[in-house]
């Protein structure tokens, strides 16, 4: 370590001087006023009844009691779990496989990456609206196409039936997120030393083995990162679901995000802000706990080379 | 270790002759997989553009329009006041990105270059703030904006994004400044440059890729944000493009031509920026995720 040599003392980090408070102040102020205070208020709100008109009143743990005895909450939690597990599996495995195919020296890889990436830049709400048109049962693109190619029996009321609504939403999420995670994996694969692949080839490892025994272990930290990102995005999913179904039909696609939103801003004249914030706390705790567990597991099973 | 030894035992089998046929077959399989998924990814957007140019009578008849029809665009452009909503979005995005960039560059620099009491604790607070789902502050923020009289204003909407935007950007900027050599600043100081000049003339120009990353990530997320925009703005004239289009869906419910034209116009700005700045976009977003 260079810190042992006296000459390197001038390379050490700078000590405290006027720059520190002056430069940190704007960011700290923003963080306190626009993040820490709202967070503290959110905790307070979970113990209150507030409808936005009359002043909030203290009701103790009543919001939490209502929450855990409310069937709609449990079904929202179930749907959120379903969505999160499905998107974590699909939006991690498929992008990883496609990224390694793209890295296997194919031509036009820039073209493919652009095509895959395009949906990423579109807002979740707009892609929800676009897919709502595609899923429309009578003249939507999907059913029209199925009828056109003679698979008319497979047409569905995609977003209108409780059996198909969640898979349909998950498909949209995969469509939209695929390119993003693919690019993360692609960038990470470029960083894997190529002699590892050469050595594997010398040992006659076929492509599948190279993928499983070189790519996957080398990308382990990135895979954990993608799983964590997918989990956080899954637990708080809102935009696409709200744009496509608003939680319907009959709460079949209600997630914690849409359930929260409809209790706060959905039903006109009866906003329950305290209760809605209690749902938000569940989202916060779930995403924090799940991502910490995943990072822990990811670290523990790290392989040494 | 066990994983690798097991692997080398498995891999030490005699070579399977890997013929030409197998090679071309493999390549063909890879290309057709990539092509098919690429087509699936592109198709909804192609359909959107094609439908936007169809005559309303043709929308459900054939895939391609018999002739380009711009009437859908005319109808949405005038009925929806799209230019107004685009300007609203532009205002919120620029204001948020400008404030975020200024605050995050300064703080990120200090976190990377200085050692002071409580630095790590403070940094972990920023890190934690980054992970907070926006739903958690939705209602308190609504309450707060109402109290300070900024509910239903574009400036208030912009403020509502600042907390998480600054937290994430401080984190990013710090990681860019950390990668720059400390000797540069020492040399500048020896030449008599003050603290601010060292930051402004020596380090900031070198952190350009960090600045670009912050601008790209934050512009995209603010431009595309829907939940806060749809909640904090109630005046129709002040709506951002995302929530304006969302509201318009009922109005144009079966007019798919107009709806497609509206969606297309709403996502055109960001798609154009993406296509022009593709390299920076991809580098910025992956850097953002990998460093985050």
Taking the sheet with the most strands of chain B, its summary is:
none
Name the chain pair with the biggest interface and residue counts per chain: A-B, 103 and 105 residues
Q: How many distinct folded domains of chain B? A: 2
Q: From the coordinates shown, what is the CATH architecture of chain A?
A: Orthogonal Bundle
Summarize the amount of helix of chain A as a percent range. 55-70%
What is the radius of gyration of chain A? Answer: 25 Å
Shape of chain A: globular
What is the ordering of alpha helices and beta strands of chain B?
HHHHHHHHHHHHHH
CATH class of the largest domain in chain B: Mainly Alpha
What is the CATH topology classification name of the largest domain in chain B? MetI-like fold
Inertia-based shape of chain B:
globular
> With helices defined by DSSP (H or I, 4 residues minimum), what is the helix count of chain A?
13
**Global mean pLDDT of chain A:** 87
Terminal CA distance of chain B reads 29 Å
Supply the key terms.
heterodimer, A: 305 residues, mainly alpha, MetI-like fold, two-stranded antiparallel sheet, 2 strands, globular, disordered N terminus, B: mainly alpha, 2 domains
Describe this structure in words.
- The complex is a heterodimer of chains A (305) and B (292).
- Chain A is mainly α.
- Chain A has one domain: MetI-like fold (Orthogonal Bundle).
- Chain A has helices at residues 19-45, 62-69, 71-102, 109-117, 124-135, 141-148, 165-190, 194-202, 207-218, 220-235, 239-244, 256-266, 273-300, and strands at 48-49, 57-58.
- In chain A, strand 1 and strand 2 (57-58) form a beta hairpin.
- In chain A, helix 3 (71-102) runs parallel beside helix 7, helix 4 runs antiparallel to helix 7 (165-190) and helix 10 (220-235) runs antiparallel to helix 13.
- Chain B is mainly alpha-helical.
- Chain B has two domains: 17-74, no CATH class; 81-291, MetI-like fold, CATH 1.10.3720.10.
- Chain B is 77% helix and 0% strand.
- Chain B contains 14 helices and no strands.
């Amino acid at each position: 370590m260079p810190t042992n040599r006296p000459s390197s003392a001038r390379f050490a980090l700078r000590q405290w001087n006027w720059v520190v408070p002056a430069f940190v102040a704007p960011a700290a102020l923003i963080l306190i006023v626009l993040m820490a205070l709202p967070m503290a208020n959110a905790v307070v709100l979970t113990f209150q009844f507030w409808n936005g008109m009359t002043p909030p009143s203290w009701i103790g743990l009543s919001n939490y009691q209502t929450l855990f005895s409310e069937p709609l909450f449990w079904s929202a939690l179930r749907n959120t779990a379903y969505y999160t597990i499905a998107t974590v599996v699909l939006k991690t495995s498929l992008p990883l496989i496609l990224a390694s195919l793209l890295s296997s020296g194919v031509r036009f890889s820039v073209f493919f990456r652009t095509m895959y990436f395009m949906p990423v830049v579109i807002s979740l709400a707009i892609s929800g609206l676009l897919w709502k048109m595609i899923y429309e049962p009578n003249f939507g693109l999907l059913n029209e196409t199925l009828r056109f190619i003679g698979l008319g029996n497979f047409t569905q009321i995609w977003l209108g039936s409780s059996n198909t609504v969640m898979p349909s939403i998950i498909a949209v999420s995969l469509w939209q997120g695929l390119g993003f995670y693919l690019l993360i994996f692609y960038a990470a694969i470029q960083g894997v030393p190529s002699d590892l692949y050469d050595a594997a080839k010398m040992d006659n490892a076929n492509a599948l083995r190279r993928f499983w025994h070189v790519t996957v272990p080398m990308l382990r930290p990135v895979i954990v990162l993608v799983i964590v990102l997918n989990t956080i995005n899954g637990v708080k999913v809102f935009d696409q679901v709200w744009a496509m179904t608003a939680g319907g039909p009959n709460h079949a696609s209600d997630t914690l995000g849409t359930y929260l939103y409809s209790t706060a801003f959905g039903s006109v004249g009866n906003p329950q802000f305290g209760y809605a914030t209690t749902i938000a706390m569940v989202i916060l705790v779930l995403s924090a706990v799940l991502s910490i567990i995943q990072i822990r597991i990811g670290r523990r099973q790290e392989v040494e080379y | 270790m066990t994983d690798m030894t097991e692997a080398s035992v498995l891999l030490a089998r005699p070579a399977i002759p890997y013929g030409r046929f197998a090679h071309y077959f493999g390549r063909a399989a890879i290309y057709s997989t990539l092509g098919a998924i690429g087509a699936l990814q592109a198709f909804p957007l192609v359909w959107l553009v094609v439908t936007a140019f169809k005559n309303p009578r043709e929308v459900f008849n054939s895939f391609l329009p018999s002739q380009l029809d711009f009437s859908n665009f005319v109808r949405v452009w005038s009925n929806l006041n799209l230019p107004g909503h685009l300007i609203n979005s532009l205002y919120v995005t620029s204001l948020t990105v400008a404030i975020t960039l200024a605050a995050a560059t300064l703080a990120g620099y200090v976190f990377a270059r200085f050692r002071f009491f409580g630095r790590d604790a403070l940094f972990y607070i920023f890190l934690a703030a980054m992970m907070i789902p926006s739903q958690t502050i939705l209602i308190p923020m609504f309450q707060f904006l109402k109290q300070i009289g900024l509910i239903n204003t574009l400036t208030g909407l912009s403020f509502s994004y600042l907390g998480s935007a600054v937290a994430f950007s401080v984190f990013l900027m710090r990681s860019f400044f950390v990668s720059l050599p400390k000797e540069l600043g020492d040399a500048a100081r020896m030449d008599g440059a003050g603290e601010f000049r060292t930051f402004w003339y020596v380090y900031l120009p070198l952190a350009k890729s960090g600045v670009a990353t912050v601008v790209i990530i934050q512009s995209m997320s603010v431009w595309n944000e829907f939940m806060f925009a749809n909640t904090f703005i109630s005046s129709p004239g002040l709506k951002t493009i995302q929530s304006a289009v969302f509201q318009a869906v009922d109005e144009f419910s079966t007019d798919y031509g107009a709806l497609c034209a509206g969606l297309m116009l709403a996502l055109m700005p960001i798609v154009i920026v993406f296509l022009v700045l593709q390299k920076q976009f991809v580098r910025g977003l992956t850097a953002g995720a990998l460093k985050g």
